[in-house]
Amino acid sequence: MKRLILVLCLMAAPLWAVQPDEMLDDPALEARARDISSGLRCLVCRNESIDDSHAELARDLRLLVRERLVAGDSNEETVDFIVERYGEYVLLKPRAGGANILLWLAGPLMLGAGLILGGIYLRRRSTTPETDVAQLSEAEEDRLREILKE
């Protein structure tokens, strides 16, 4: 039973990143803040949301999100404000527009190009006429038999 409680506590560890003094009194604003902060990257921890991170910068970003929401900003305005300050790297899921469209399309385009080039190679290979392979002379065949016997 103690082990089960310990495992459950360890599984809930990321929930402890948001400190009680950071939480807003209004449950609706707090839910919006959690929704926004789950999509923002901790710049210290890299691939961890600021909601899950224990870093000081993540705490500052969580407080900034809550300040913007209390000031009356919408979710989009809050995210835009943070992206303007820290760049698009702060988003865990980058936007698919502008210069990022090249990154979003690069993978599928390269896969398509590889499939097309592979198909062209296989088609050319199958239609290439077979070249005559020179047969060994009697002397060469005798020499080969001697080598193989040794």
CATH superfamily of the largest domain: Cytochrome C biogenesis protein
Strand content: under 5%
The number of domains is: 2
The SS-based structural class is mainly alpha
| Dominant shape | elongated
CATH topology of the largest domain: the name is: Helicase, Ruva Protein, domain 3
Share of helical residues: 55-70%
Using only CA atoms, what is the Rg?
Answer: 31 Å
Helical stretch tally? 6
State the separation between the terminal residues, measured CA to CA: 74 Å
Counting DSSP E segments of at least 2 residues, the number of strands comes to 0
List the uncertain runs: none
CATH architecture identity of the largest domain: Orthogonal Bundle
From N to C, what is the helix and strand string?
A: HHHHHH
Largest sheet: none
Can you give the mean pLDDT? 83
